[in-house]
Specification:
Helix content: 25-40%
Shape: globular
Largest sheet: 7 strands, mixed
Strand content: 25-35%
Number of strands: 9
Order of helices and strands: HHEEHEHEHEEHEEE
Mean pLDDT: 95
Number of helices: 6
Structural class: alpha/beta
Low-confidence stretches: none
Strand order of the largest sheet: 5-4-3-6-7-8-9
């Protein structure tokens, strides 16, 4: 993966924040975050902070992108087929695509999905399938998945997503309203085993879709 100096500096910052997986750090260093932001915010692209991208949505803090990706890479089933809920700008999608076999990504806001698809083409990332739809419902026809990553906070655990997770699979999802926690959930012997990772702040996972 070809890195940039700004990307490398961001990766160094994330290392100091506790991200240790070298594959994740390399993917962050090789993903031009400025490409995923409005022109007025590009000067903040390599800061470790969430930023608005329009439509009431944000591009996640790089630390959170790296942390969630690292949790997927640590899964025992060595996932390759990933479902992402909430494409947003496509930044997390691009990082995942550099590390996993195929990413299926669902976005409820049509304009964001269109912009993200264009960025994937610019980056020559072709192991991504995108769908405009309701993230609460997942993408049933393409499942089941080795792992699922959700980039918006659900008020409760979405049963449809759990049903689309393979045996041995891992679900990374923020859950909560006022207080949100990032959960790491593994399907083991048909049961869901949940570990709380840390407190987080995400936009809400809203049912339905928008044109």
């Amino acid at each position: 993966m070809k890195t940039t100096r700004k990307g490398e500096k961001l990766a160094e910052l994330l290392f100091s924040e506790g991200i240790r997986d070298q594959k994740v750090l390399m993917a962050i260093a090789a993903t031009p975050r400025d490409l995923f932001l409005p022109d007025a915010l590009k000067h903040k692209a390599y800061q470790n902070t969430a930023l608005p991208i329009g439509q009431g949505q944000t591009i996640s803090q790089p630390y959170i992108v790296a942390k969630m990706t690292e949790l997927l890479l640590k899964a025992e089933n060595q996932p390759q087929k990933i479902l992402e809920i909430g494409t947003g700008s496509g930044y997390q999608t691009a990082v995942l695509a550099k590390l996993f076999g195929h990413v299926f990504s669902v976005e409820r806001i049509k304009t964001l999905q269109f912009q993200a698809k264009r960025r994937m083409n610019q980056l020559n990332l072709h192991n991504i399938s995108m769908k405009h739809g309701d993230g609460w419902k997942g993408w049933l026809s393409k499942g089941p998945y080795d792992a699922i990553l959700v980039t918006a906070a659900a008020s409760q655990l979405p049963h449809d997503l759990c049903d689309q997770l393979k045996e041995g699979g891992r679900l990374i999802i923020p859950v909560g309203s006022e207080q949100q926690n990032l959960l790491c959930i593994d399907r083991i012997n048909g049961k869901l085993e949940t570990n709380t990772i840390e407190a987080v702040r995400f936009v809400p996972l809203i049912a339905g879709d928008l044109q």
